[in-house]
Amino acid sequence: MTNAKDIVIVDYGMGNLRSVVNAFEHLGCRTVIARRGEELDQGDAIVLPGVGAFGEAMRVLHERDLIGPLNRAVIERGRPILGICLGMQVMAESSDELGEHRGLAWLSGRVRRMSGGRVHRLPHVGWNALMVTREAPLFTGLDGERVFYFNHSYSLDCDAGHVLATTEYGETVVAAVRAGNIFGLQFHPERSQQGGLALLGNFLDYAGHC
Amino acid sequence: MLKVRLIPCLDVKDGRVVKGVNFVDLRDAGDPVEQAQIYDKAGADELCFLDITASHENRDTILDVASRTAEQCFMPLTIGGGVRTTEDIRRLLLAGADKVSINTAAVKHPDFVREAAEKFGTQCIVVAIDAKRTGTEKFEIFTHGGREPTGLDAVDWARRMAGYGAGEILLTSMDRDGTGEGFDIPLTRTIADAVSIPVIASGGVGTLDHLVEGVRDGHASAVLAASIFHFGTYSIAEAKQAMDKAGLAVRL
Fold it and tell me: Annotated active-site positions of A, please?
């Protein structure tokens, strides 16, 4: 397990910041809440949390002038970043949630509403099992069934090369992605008890070795 | 495969846990954060706090409970009771709640649900429905702990709330709540079959078979119970084993 990393958690007004802060502090990290671009450089890694709507998330990132600084930190300087739920979705090129919106375009892919229905009700809410398609440092030590907490109605369709894990919910849902230093999770590790904390610990270990 | 969720619920009054039988005889049973930690360690899939604090001055006690719980527990937390404004929701979410449940305020101002879903996202808005039988297959919405009839048909109401952006329905049978006689299965199934958002069955669990029935026969996506866990009749593990044995997908 990692010790005392500084983790920058981006506050763009979208949801459960507190839970994410609590989880990293529980793992022994210092957390820096970043509301301005210059604050993104104050840590070893960046976390982009988020619950809510895609368009609103992008609007706030623009409004707070965070997009340029995020691109510089993540794309130019290669800082490790973890996007959680909506925080992963905004890394895509676009989304059709409540209109057509452009994303950060760090991942080749788009976000769309899941098909759903009377059997596979939306939101997809609850604990679902991962099918790991590509072993990655994130999953180290997570043996047995890897079950995490999901809560979403939109999902990411992306380049197969990004996909680390999927889950099944009437369709195959992208659950975890990686593109170099960029990691994204559709589920909520900060709400997934021991397995979720272990996964966040793995991200910290990765961030510590870059 | 998505697992069936087992959700223990704690009634919280003035920052302390209580549990009512038919919402009347309340018994004090401790600190909500301690209880939450026990459920977290036991592998509960989510936790629900229902704030039944009556006095306005003590309404903020739930924010402290939420934030202390969220520091200790890494599972989804839903808080309901007295949620009337988007500001109430914002404060609960900031304190550490993942979802809020809206009951009376939805009945009084249905557009509040729409506004809340647009602002915070469907996935964090649970609409709590307290329903009572008024005929053989007829169910009516009640508020104020089952005392106030509203004239609203439960099925119509559930459909309307789903259309307004509710992410889940927490359905409580006021006839069964606190009785230990099991969920009102026809009610649960009628509502679950009428909407395509998840329905959490609540009210009446007395045995582990009741949990199974709520899913198998009531078509609920999740089951909520209070007393059977709270007074130690059954553990979370026993409940999950029983559900697993009955062929339901659960997280063991």
Answer: 85, 188, 190
pLDDT digits (tens, 9 = 90+) for B3-15: 999 999 998 999 9
How many CB pairs (< 8 A) connect A and B? 106
**In the block, residue with structure tokens 């990655």:** A136
**pLDDT given at position B31:** 81
pLDDT band at B229 (very low <50, low <70, confident <90, very high): confident
Q: Locate the chain B residue with the closest alpha carbon to A85.
A: B123
pLDDT digits (tens, 9 = 90+) for A16-48: 789 999 999 999 999 999 999 999 988 999 999
What ipTM did this prediction achieve?
0.93
Nearest to A126 among B2, B40, B94 (CB): B2
Walk me through the domains of chain A, giving residue ranges and CATH numbers: 6-209 (3.40.50.880)
CA of A78 vs chain B CAs: smallest distance (Å)? 30
The sign one gets for the Cα dihedral B20, B24, B28, B31 is positive
- Contact at CB, A15 and B2, closer than 8 angstroms: no
Cβ pair A125:B198 closer than 8 A: yes
Q: Is the Cα dihedral A162, A172, B171, B10 positive or negative?
A: negative
Who's near B249: CB < 8 A, 6+ residues apart? B1, B2, B3, B4
